[in-house]
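Why run this: before we spend reagent on co-expression, it is cheaper to look at a predicted model of the complex and decide which construct boundaries make sense. The entries below are exactly what would go into the expression plan.
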Amino acid sequence: MQPLDDKKIGLLKEKAHDIRVSIIEMLVSAGSGHSAGPLGMADIFSALYFHILKHDPKVPTWPGRDRLVVSNGHICPVLYAAMAHSGYFPVSELLTLRKFGSRLQGHPHRDFLPMLETSSGPLGSGLSQAVGMALADRLDRGKDSGRFFYCVMSDGELDEGQSWEAVLLAGKEKLGNLIAIVDRNNIQIDGFTEDVMPLGSVAHKFESFGWHVEEIDGHNFEAIVESVGRAQAVFDGPSVIVARTIPGKGVSYMERDFKWHGNPPGTAIPGEPDPKEQAKIALHDLRTLDGQIEHE
Amino acid sequence: MTKDLHLNPKLFDKDVEKNATRTGFGHGLVLAGDKNADVVALCADLTESTQMHFFRDKFPARFFEMGVAEQNMASVASGMSAMGKIPFIASYAMFSPGRNWEQIRTTICYNNRHVIIAGSHAGVSVGPDGGSHQALEDIALARVLPRMTVISPCDAIEARKAVLASVDMEGPVYIRLARNKTPVMTTNETPFEIGKAQMFYDSSFPQGRPVGIIATGPLLHKALKVAEQLKKEKISVQVWNFATIKPLDEKALVEIAKNCGAIVTVEEHQIAGGLGSAVSECLAQNFPVPIEFIGVRDQFGQSGTPEELIEHYGLGESNIAEAIKKVISRK
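The model came back. Tokens follow.
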């Protein structure tokens, strides 16, 4: 992985912005889908697709690539947008999200888009799959194959018992090639995570299972890249990056509000802007960096 | 007995050789491991019970102990398959595909991964462990999944062949296994092909058409014995081994319905969703004939000896004989 310089940080910011704009456009076109998680993870996906991942968008099945398993499949608007903006398929295709015959299914499905590493949606099983991939790679190529196995997961899906079965196994197997990134945005569909099912310290929980833990601001590109660098350097055990993110990041009325977990712009929600105005406000917020700059 | 199938000539003898289908699986897995370096094995803390210890001892690096975590095991296998491995996962059928059905659906079938699921201790013949451990719903659970192949071997030799054949195919496979030692009906020479039904026995007399018995798993032996006994009463019976429940050998089945005009299905599973259901679905559309079902009738199992339980749940030889006579009366 290359070190970050200011120029690269600028590029990652730009890509994250493009990804967020695409997310809003996709969700408006689809008329359904999840907003908060994808917007909150846009910076991390920008860092992954434009800096961290070893991959070739022109040859998606290149065997030497890193693997990225997206366990919380409902955030796929950010996955699809990152893939399109990095050249896997045309950006214009993003507007087919959730429509009949589209490759961009409501939750990722390899039957329709074979370049995905896995189909997902039902929560709690992505980490297990990443563990399986990492184990198989170690079996074939030893500990230093130079490939890393990333798993993006949500904090809400840590409610699933299977998540912890996988955490146990990865600790037992000391999988140094495995790096989990937990989106610690503190919301899930029914409310705040600490109200729905308190998770407490995610970091301490992973640590007690033998994982190397990083806790970062998930919107700080230097922090994202440096934490991945340290995780890569830990060769004798799995690593988790607990990324604190702001759900709905970049759209004023969505930020930190669990009501936007599973709704697209254009949804009538008491106390929220007029549904007809929501998309316009969202794009305006993004283009003016939430009022920091005057003109779109 | 059908000559060219090279069945065990001693299969009607009192001292017929007995072996468990799970043991056939265990030996088959070692052969598969020898043949193909990509074969790996995962077990959820039941390594000897599932007879995976033969593989573990021979290929320790390719064996992965998952602990009591069947859900994780299914998805880990999916991930290994994504990297080109051919994973076998083993537990009791009650837990895999019972406990981890959704993980099998989404991470294995939906992803179209070549993972072989071995569910041992299926049926009431598990015996003393009781109903909690006697899987009577696993065929239904596996059969309903798109892409899943479902195999229920009749004896240890067939189980061994099913393992080897599974390695050479694509997509997910479920192999149903039993705990108990049961009669060995086939030999090394008996042909085996996934998706192909075989007529093991035919006592057709010139007068009248035979009853077709469609059986799966070790209970096939009881069906064969009943057919042999009914010869004395001049009742013609054909006994078919449907080791593959999905894809069902529909061509053979429709031929049987046409030739026999009456059918009895035999399985150690709930009638709902099992082999009997599969046979009915096919024949209702293609060639409806009277069918009687030998299977468990919407009940859970309990403790007892295998023989006691087989009798109690209406799966014994007398029940099969009655069903044959009943279906003849409905012709």
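The first helix of chain B runs from residue 21 to 35. Chain B touches chain A through 29 residues (CB under 8 Å). Bring this page to Monday's planning discussion.
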